[in-house]
From TrEMBL:
Keywords for the protein's UniProt record, in alphabetical order: Acyltransferase, Amino-acid biosynthesis, Cytoplasm, Methionine biosynthesis, Transferase
Domain AB hydrolase-1 residue range list: 43-325
Organism (species): Hymenobacter metallilatus
Protein name (record): Homoserine O-acetyltransferase
Major localization listed first in the record, in broad terms: cytoplasm
Annotated PANTHER family: HOMOSERINE O-ACETYLTRANSFERASE (PTHR32268)
Length: 345
């Protein structure tokens, strides 16, 4: 991650989680780019997805960065690492200040609402009364929609990509399959920094099947050697992607964040999903992806149906759910249409 634009904020008080558990000390690592305008009306807040970090220029090239739609020369860009992650914000591997020991598998359950509570504390610390645009895809979109429900007066524009108002039974099942792989690794229960690595490798292989599409695998991982009976491209691809994740992430954060994703339901305690979405006052753009099997387009259509005045558009992509990270030209096109009347700097 880039360190030049990286900052750390410590919450001034203990954080009471939605479950009632308390985290006495919470630190947040976040990145900022660009400068606040004199009228403080150019804030872009990005919420990141499952295994990403706060360095949005690193993982969303083509959309955020110099020469992109969200250019730091025009925008003041904020992205905070989520609670429970392993990229600087308090999570399962964070040493407890009093004991020096990490919680590992004993880290308490956190929800999307707990993540949003940390974002809200950071927003207050930065004295950002208004956010021009709040954007997020997948788990990031879940945070964004929850935050927009909680603080309708704060956000002027809301951009939701490949996400939902409530995590589906299908999505929960995928996450549980991944957690079962991790829990089957005996090293996970030993509570060491590298615990569960083999399980995490298997979990990533499961996850990829929900991130990409049948067509994407067919076009990139089909062997041309008709005589092959083993060691297929698709097999080595799954192993390679698992190794890549194990090198940069840990099993304990993966379990914590996947459980947080499962908790997502904006309707909880608010009467219904429809009633909760009705609280949103931001101008909203919702983007679906034709080939997304994890968050299929009907979930974004439902968001657009119940968020007043929302604009809905669909990206045609072979990349499945990962299209929200890859199809930056299409995203830019729809953002330009969305901002046509209000994008003034």
């Amino acid at each position: 991650m880039s360190s030049e634009n990286s900052h750390v904020f410590r919450l001034p008080r203990p954080l009471r989680l939605e479950t009632g558990s308390v985290l006495p000390h919470v630190e947040v690592t976040y990145h900022t780019y660009g400068q606040l305008s004199p009228t403080r009306d150019n804030v872009l807040w990005v919420c990141h997805a499952l295994t990403a970090n706060s360095d949005v220029l690193e993982w969303w090239p083509g959309l955020v960065g110099p020469g992109c739609h969200f250019d730091p020369s025009e925008w003041f860009i904020v992205c905070a690492n989520v609670l429970g992650s392993c990229y600087g914000t308090t999570g399962p591997l964070t040493p407890d200040p009093s004991s020096g020991e990490a919680a590992y598998q004993q880290f308490p359950l956190v929800t999307i609402r707990d993540m949003v509570a940390v974002h809200e504390a950071l927003r207050e610390h930065l004295a950002l009364a208004r956010i021009h645009t709040l954007i997020g895809g997948s788990l990031g979109g879940q945070q964004a929609v929850e935050w927009a429900v909680q603080r309708p007066a704060v956000f002027e524009n809301l951009v939701l990509l490949a996400t939902s108002a409530r995590h589906s039974a299908w999505g929960i099942a995928f996450n549980e399959a991944q957690r079962l792989a991790i829990l089957a690794d005996p090293t996970y229960h030993q509570g060491t920094p590298t615990g569960g690595a083999a399980g995490l490798r298997a979990a990533r292989a499961v996850a990829l099947l929900s991130y990409r599409s049948h067509h994407a695998y067919g076009s990139t991982q089909t062997d041309q050697d008709e005589a092959k009976i083993t060691d297929f491209l698709a097999s080595s691809y799954q192993r390679y992607q698992g190794d890549k994740l194990v090198a940069r992430f840990d099993a304990y954060s993966y379990v914590a964040l996947s459980q947080a994703m499962d908790s997502h339901n904006v309707g909880r305690g608010r009467g219904s999903v429809q009633a909760a979405l009705g609280r949103i006052r931001a101008r909203t753009l919702v983007l679906g992806i034709t080939s997304d099997v994890l968050f299929p387009p009907q979930e974004q259509q439902m968001l657009a149906r119940y968020i007043k005045g929302a604009m809905y558009a669909e990206m045609d992509s072979q990349y499945g759910h990962d299209g929200f990270l890859i199809e930056t030209a299409q995203i830019t096109h729809f953002l330009e249409r969305f901002y046509v009347q209000t994008y003034v700097h």
